[in-house]
Amino acid sequence: MKLKTITLAISLAILAGPALAATEADVEMTFNPYKAGMPSYPGLTAGMTINKANVDQFKEILSYGFHKLIKEGAFEIKVAPTTQFELSKAYIDATRKNLNKTKLGANNGDLEGYVAGRPFPEEPDIKDPRAGEKLAWNYKYGVNWGDNASISPFYWKYRDMATGKVERIIKFDFHFLNLTHRVKDAPIPEVVPNPAHLFRAIYVHVQEPNDIKNTQLLIQRYEDDQKLDDAYLYLGFQRRVRRLATGQITDSFLGADLMIEDFEGYNGRISDMKWTYKGTKFVLLPMWNHNDLKLATDMPPEPDGYKYVNFGGQGGCFFDGTWQLRKVYLLEAAPVAPGHPIGKRQFYMDTQLQNVDGSIDIYDRKGELWKTWSVAKSHAEHHLPINKGAGIGLDDAFMMVDVQSKHCTTGHFKGQVDYKQNPPGMFQVQNLRGGD
Questions:
Q1: Domains in the chain: boundaries
Q2: Residues whose CB falls within 8 Å of the CB of residue 332, separated by 6 or more in sequence, listed in order
């Protein structure tokens, strides 16, 4: 019996394997997955429209949620050629310099040896039981908004999908700062002092409407993933700061269809989820050049002439932009906590950017589709002049569609990669009291 147990343990170890060391070829492939040519799919051509009449032909290259919505006639998508979304040279160089220094620890959420760049640039292995966790770390320590950025202004519109009525508009400023593992903007490699050992912070300030004006949110994420985030809310009408309880990050945020945990696709700890890599395929994602789109006419341009992404489809809930065929990793995240309101998220993770927010299906605890969640990306070179050379996929618009209640929240971005707009003092609790 003992011999059988030992044999089984050896077999499992061989199946999981020791991870092979990543190579320079892996680095090249992870940042340039289209080196050998752009992806294709039978019958798919640039310039065509996918709608309810032909969507079943392209079911394999759409997320479950978006296929369902297009088949119901909720919206159509316009296909454009696949393009390169190059990340910054500084981030790629950091990946090369720190190749194979990063290792998973004993528990989900433990990481050892990480310095900067993409922690696990090698192609995921379906036989590796922790491949999903490695992809989650690639997202956490990915470029996202870069070392620092702001969305100002940032409009959220709450919409009745059945009638198209806009029920509420909130005007925000959002700010992002990486305190550690910085590779591009000074100070490099970290912001000091940082006595709490924070990794990242998000600061949110409501500008309009008057009933919630000066509401502010501060999220501080620790370097140690096992530590709970600190989150603080300042309510302008009460003029006091209160600390958010852990469960409140999964409540509706200011009445929207998304919660704090949904920010940027997933705004939580690695250790809060069980991560599973489900395979690799080609999928259509909303990725474009902002300046080449037909832009919105129902929102006035900003003083500098900037115009927002247009929306259309049922209820005005859907991007009016182009989609392109991308190589993606299917990544599933199921909450560890039994009382969590969702059952799982299915991410269609772009392999070049390794952000998770291009296309997400969110399922309820009964296993039924609840919401579809997407943040569209613009190439930074085809956006505001300040974003040229940023080397990121720039968040350009979002749509969170509750398919059960037929309601949506849409996001209208003016994103700017500019360290001057994100001073470290902005991300301290003391700033909340003085923010109004």
A1: 1-146+154-168+257-414
A2: 132, 275, 276, 277, 278, 344, 345, 346, 347
